Amino acid sequence: MSDLPASDLITPDAGEAAILGLASVSILKAAPLTRLSFRAREASLKKAGTAFGVALPVKPLTSTTTAKRAALWMGPDEWTLLAPEEDLQAVAVGIEGKLDGEPHALVDVSDRSDAVIVTGERAAWLLNTGIFVDFSLESFPVGTVTRTLFHKSPVMIWRIGPEAFVVEAWGSFMDYVAGLLVQCAQELEAV
Amino acid sequence: MSQPFRTEKGGRIDRTGELTFTFDGEEMHGHAGDTLASALLANGVHLVGRSFKYHRPRGILSAGSEEPNALVGVYRKGDQTPNLRATQVELYHGLQAVSQNRFPSLGFDVGAVNDLLSPLFPAGFYYKTFMWPKSFWDRVYEPIIRAAAGLGKPPKNPDHDTYGNLYAHCDVLVAGSGPSGLAAALAAAETGARVILCDEQAEFGGSLLSENSATIDGKDPAIWVAEIVARLAAMDNVTLLPRTTAFGYFAHNFIALAERVTEHLSDPDPRLPRERLWQVRAKEVVIAAGAIERPMVFPENDRPGILLADAGRTYLNRYGVKVGHKVLVATACDTAWQAAFDLADHGVEVVAIADLRESPPESLVSIAAARGIRVEAGCVVTGTLGRKRVRAALLGRMMTSGQVAAGGQIECDALLMSGGWTPTVSLFSQSRGKVVWEAETGAFVPGKSVQKERSAGAANGLYGLQASLTDGYAAGEGAARAATGKSATINHSRTSGGEAGTGGTLGALPHDRNASRVKAFVDYQNDVTAKDVKLAVREGMQSIEHIKRYTTTGMATDQGRLSNMNALQIASGALEKPLTDVGLTTFRQPFTPTTFGLFAGVSRGDFFDPVRKTPSHDWVVEKGGLFEDVGQWKRAWYFPKNGEDMHAAVERECRTVRESVGLFDASTLGKIEVAGPDAAEFLERMYTNPWKKLAPGRCRYGLLLNDAGFITDDGVIGRLADDRFHVTTTTGGAPSVFATMEDYLQTEWPELDVWITSTTDQYAVAAIQGPKAREVIAPFIEGIDLSAEALPHMSVKEAMFRGIPCRLFRISFTGELGFEINVPRRHGKMMWETLAGEIEKHGGTAYGTEAMHVLRAEKGYIIIGQDTDGTVTPQDAGMSWAIGKNKFDFVGKRGLERPDLKAENRKQLVGLLTKDPKIKLEEGAQVTTLENPATGTPADGHVTSSYYSPALGRTIALAIVRNGHALEGKTLYVPMPEGSIPVEVTGTVFYDKEGARLNV
């Protein structure tokens, strides 16, 4: 499997201070992004991928990426499509145009979630303080994406590097998620 | 030397420095590597507690987590943790420990009178005594029992520690690090499998740490342990967890571990958690939990100074502590002899080895002879003397008749006993495995595996060092192969010495004493004697499960690991049934007592549950607004100004909305985007209302029922396009409505081309309500005509709010002209602050949920869950108009056809006006037809909403009343403690009945 980052679409929000900055793990707020929820049947996937710019993955828990696009498998008929913030209209119009007349649903959820980037040698450890997923590289290679729970909050985890994860939560849950990540990391500072 | 019972040398303690600790305030010394128990023994302290029921003086019995007697409280940061086993408390500098269950002091305890009165407290005492009279239970019996019950003092303050949590996965989890556990861990790890090795003790090695009469690969066992542990520690695929108890074995090989992170530290870094809960999913589990020694059940077998033989050996070899200066060893098996030999080698006087067996192995007898130790074969202890410490034992000679003849008295200051060994099958039992009886060793051993686990070594009923190692290697290899398919060849270590012993006994031992007067303890912690078990049988208990509950044997913190086998044998004898027919109680989680903090984890304080905030949150805080919890959301409740109380603030907010304009944060309402060609068809099937003819750009109130026909949610739904709807739900109902819709889509109507997407957090929503609402938003809305003609009540348009795309709804939950603006969440703060500034210019106000409740009640708009309770149909709520009469089907349609839902006399939603307009009814108060109904008369309904209405200048209420719709104009009563309140039944709309204010 690749050691290369799965995507560099996700970048730290330049205007924001680090949420956590330890030697072994850091948490940075991610910059805004276009997020579209795409739902369709199998017959429409090919066209949708062409219009979007990257093929939609059909293997569970995987993602496909190009420099400016990422398609994340969320379920058998559900994908999250990521693109730079300014591409929202272009992507939406492109897919709607291509799929005109074919049953599908494309919904703008760019603002539904906030994302943080958790990186460092203890990143997987930190996520495991509240997530029951096995983050070994064998079970959860770079590029893997899943919805799961972090303690009591629904989150989406996307591994973009061996030691780098995107953690997305609905906006109103992010105080809880980021706050607990910071609290759980506290012991790493202990001497 | 301040530690009179410390050996000259040896043991694994660090003799280079002394640690100071206190026990009941008395200062003592010990060494790093000591447990509190070993340090107390080194100081000659055996008396450490009082027993639970009889308050008998008790001493340290064991050296492990099964310890029943030495339960202590440990103080830290001004509070104490009760009921810690002194055998598990690691000594640190400054440790403050106290004894428990004694008053006024450990040495003189008034509760000990229970011991003298013990004939009055037989088994089942409580059941027999506290039955009559019934009325005594609440006032007399229960308070007395409560005061006497419980061990130790609960902590008084909020827990000052934090607790960690970690989820982990591994191929092989090895529980226990004795010879078989270490061998299993190494064998599994060498295959490359991911291995977790945990052990409840501070050091890995288990029994090997106190074994000095055997060698492994020619080395001292402790050195072999250090080498193996170093090898494991160097491997990336191995996680080593000392001080970690595998306390729970759950379904699908899910194992819970409790890691004690800082309990052993004098001054831990406050950033470290006190304990960490490991929630491990293991592909395979190796249970290497070892075996524990059985006490012998002879009269007065509970005096301080009486220990298990192997504990005596552990204290000597591992901790460098002599349990006494004159030690009697009483045994029925070979292993205890080695304790005697080791003690003798350290210069301790072993006064005798009393072996129950007529002919103990010749090899042992000759070793004893070489050391000059007196051996009494066919000899049993029939009693002990001494109050706070044993000072002598009575010996009895076993005769061929089975009787016992007095064999004299022997002085001793410690007595080591061994009735044989019991495999620790707790984890196996927790995994739902059933144990099988092995007559040869007289033990229950693990039977068929139910989950993916295997027991190894002594836990598997295999004794002897070589056998344990061999079994451990095999278990580790087998587990790794099963988990990963991989195997590896490793060198198996060879041992010399450490052979398995023979012998052992079960049940009460014979004696020549008056059986009705002596106490031979079976369960130390719960003060259950052999007599109690026999009594339970005499009184009709036949199953061990009944005997256990009647006598409480096996119900202590060790769950009967020490007592079960003896109790079973006694019951079996009394019942004249084979032991295997008496049954065996089930071991349950947790293996040892586990703190509540470990389970609570991070769920406390601010992180007890997610706290969801809206984009206006900071603004509300700044303006001094108060919040109300609605589900996980913080919603603005009301905004007091200039010292207003809640009533005044809410009244002002209500008036302002009706007179000019108000601003309300509606972001918390659930939002679901329903998109796809079949969107209208889907809503048609979900909601009671018709949707197919709703034109794009228009909205409709939607009512959602469950299959039974009862109202479960409501909300306004706007049609954005032919194939797209914007659905709103209640704040609290959002997740369940979404889940219900998804459920129907996936299971009932998979053929529909429609998909639902939650957009609750996508949009921030501001509601602007009041006659001036249009003027307030007009300056910021671009792209659409806001006039009543272009944008009538119940319509929706996409527009721009200060350059940001928005969805603009013209809807109202107040009865006034109203708009709700949806902008992407990140612009919510900007929108709120813009509108908050603008309403100022119009004399408007921000208002909270309380004013919203009053305003909607004035209009008779229901709140799901307040005016409905899961038993209210649309007809009951007076909302038959919301049901599409010509619809083929919708969720709940058939439910509504049920006879009882169409029956007369159902409770229906009505308005109530008190005859005295100043009286505000109590929400939840009962409504009756009679002014003063007799006690026991069923109520005819209850008040669901009640407010002071500023618009009407009087109070108003909504209520659910039997046959209420037919009672309009009639007088009913709300009986209250101060007198019955007469009320008039009205319609549910109190204000602007014709809706003129909406359509402007």
UniProtKB/TrEMBL annotation, chain A:
InterPro entries: SoxG, TrmE/GcvT-like. Pfam families: SoxG (PF04268). This is Sarcosine oxidase subunit gamma. It comes from Roseibium marinum.
From TrEMBL, chain B:
It comes from the Bacteria. The keyword Oxidoreductase applies. Transmembrane segments: none annotated. Residues 519-601 form the SoxA A3 domain. Keywords: Oxidoreductase. InterPro entries: 2Fe-2S-bd_N, BFD-like_2Fe2S-bd_dom_sf, FAD/NAD-bd_sf, GcvT/YgfZ/DmdA, GcvT/YgfZ_C, GcvT_C, GCVT_N, Sarcosine_oxidase_asu. SUPFAM superfamilies: Aminomethyltransferase beta-barrel domain, FAD/NAD(P)-binding domain, Folate-binding domain. GO terms for biological process: tetrahydrofolate metabolic process. Residues 617-887 form the GCVT N-terminal domain. Signal peptide: none annotated. GO terms for molecular function: sarcosine oxidase activity. Belongs to the GcvT family. NCBIfam families: soxA. This is Sarcosine oxidase subunit alpha.
